[in-house]
Amino acid sequence: MDMTGMKAAATSAQAALGDAGGTAERRVTVLGATGSIGRATLDLIADAPEGRFSVQALVANGNAEALAAAARRVRARLAVVADAAALPVLRAALAGTGIETAAGAAAVVEAAAMPADWTMAGIVGAAGLAPTLAAVAQGGMVAIANKECLVCAGAALIASARRAGTMLLPVDSEHNAIFQAMDSAGPEGVERIVLTASGGPFWNWSLTQMGQASAAQAVAHPVWRMGAKISVDSATMMNKGLEIIEAAHLFDLPDDRIDVLVHRQALVHGLVYYRDGSVVAQLAPPDMHTPIAHALAWPGRMTVATPRLDLAAAGSLSFEKPDAERFPALGLARAALRAGGTAPAVLNAANEVAVRLFLDGRIGFLSIAAMIAAVMTEVGASRADDLEAVLAADAEARAAAEAHARTYA
Ligand code: MG
Predict the structure, then answer these.
(1) pLDDT digits (tens, 9 = 90+) for 145-166
(2) Can you give the three-state secondary structure of the chain, one letter per residue?
(3) Looking at the domain assignment, is residue 299 inside a domain?
(4) How many domains does the chain have?
(5) Any idea what the CATH number is for the domain that residue 353 is in?
């Protein structure tokens, strides 16, 4: 959604909340309820004052025990597992609670399409595409924590949000920061935005050292505690590349107005440069509860009991330009964004395969970007008008990447 659309949606969301600004009960659905973003969202909901939120549906992949515990804790109306084999366990765990249960891919999409004021789109990977699109088409507010949705199906998702009058709330820390820094000003005043990056574990390594990097070294992230896949994405800086694409869709900006700065302390998450020379930045300790709470309470604010930013203790903050030669993933992502259509979906799929091959010890660290570049050239880009076109490009890119596994071994 462009910023004009965001402002319009903001106004209607504010109207829906009433003059008291967020005192009406907000009906919430959480897609990806047992993942790290979903758990943090439910922590915030459980800690909020009575009557602030009511939980419509919780959706998880296959962890029925964790889903049942979460559903009991927040008294959800419905709990859904994507994996149908997990349904008996879910049913047994929720017997006598009055909480409804369902299972399967269609039930997940149905739950996402149920009326809700606010939905957390927190299902990781391609599995999140269909339910996120369903939630966006339903209306209300959708907090976007699934990068792949915007990277692979950004144009379709933004168009659908515009049609339905759905407000998209960025949860990725950098995008949430930009959203906060932009929230009170018009888009016409924005010159460019800056996403910060921690630089990952190989920030100061030479190309030779990077060529010999092991999976264990790549997943040792200096600041954020994350899963193996996203840790490798941080080490290659593909995570930031995907975030450039995400930002282009969310804020309707071309790639040459989205910059990246390496900021090792990870306290400044995003900056907006305005035409008058002003720069507005958002700062917070690196804790996902803060951007999630911002989205959950938007356009209001809610109390979050996390440690506060202590700038005196932080001392100095440093900023550097990323090195294009040692981090070619940034250039690949920009090329995919400029190519448009299915190119970002191809980039994302090739990256997922390459990262898995690297984690399995089958290709070297520098081969990740080399393999992605080869797959992008081979598969090319076509129109990405709907989910089918995106999924077809995704499958083609995965197959092409698998076929390259030996070449780069
Ligand atoms: Mg991020």
Answers:
(1) 988 899 999 999 999 999 999 9
(2) CCHHHHHHHHHHHHHHHCCCCCCCCEEEEEECCCCHHHHHHHHHHHHCCCCCEEEEEEEECCCHHHHHHHHHHHCCCEEEECCHHHHHHHHHHCCCCCCEEEECHHHHHHHHHCCCCEEEECCCCHHHHHHHHHHHHHCCEEEECCHHHHHHHHHHHHHHHHHHCCEEEECCHHHHHHHHHHCCCCHHHEEEEEEEECCCCCCCCCHHHHHCCCHHHHCCCCCCCCCHHHHHHHHHCHHHHHHHHHHHHHHCCCHHHEEEEECCCCCEEEEEEECCCCEEEEECCCCCHHHHHHHHHCCCCCCCCCCCCCHHHHCCCCCECCCCCCCCHHHHHHHHHHHCCCHHHHHHHHHHHHHHHHHCCCCCCCHHHHHHHHHHHHHCCCCCCCHHHHHHHHHHHHHHHHHCCCCCC
(3) no
(4) 2
(5) 1.10.1740.10
